[in-house]
Design goal:
Layout lengths: L2 H7 L4 H17 L7 H16 L5 H8 L9
Helix pairs in contact: 2-3, 2-4, 3-4
């Protein structure tokens, strides 16, 4: 399943998909390697989708969650 498919199947508004995509790109950049194995990319995407389903909309926090870092408190 591709990143776009994963995000769109979850039925998010376009602005949320943009935030999720930005978070995904930032998480990959943080890993210092765009050529991560597909499993790593899938885990990042699934974590972002789950956080967004839970109401998170901030791309920075979504990226932190994708990387397995605890999310900061509410802003």
């Amino acid at each position: 399943m591709t990143l776009v498919t994963e995000f769109h199947q979850a039925a998010f508004e376009p602005e949320v998909v943009r935030a999720m995509t930005t978070a995904y790109d930032r998480a990959l950049q943080e890993l210092q390697d765009q050529d991560q194995p597909e499993l790593v990319k899938e885990v990042l995407a699934k974590r972002i989708v789950e956080a967004a389903k839970g109401g998170e909309r901030d791309c920075e926090r979504l990226a932190e969650i994708a990387l397995g870092r605890p999310a900061a408190g509410p802003r």
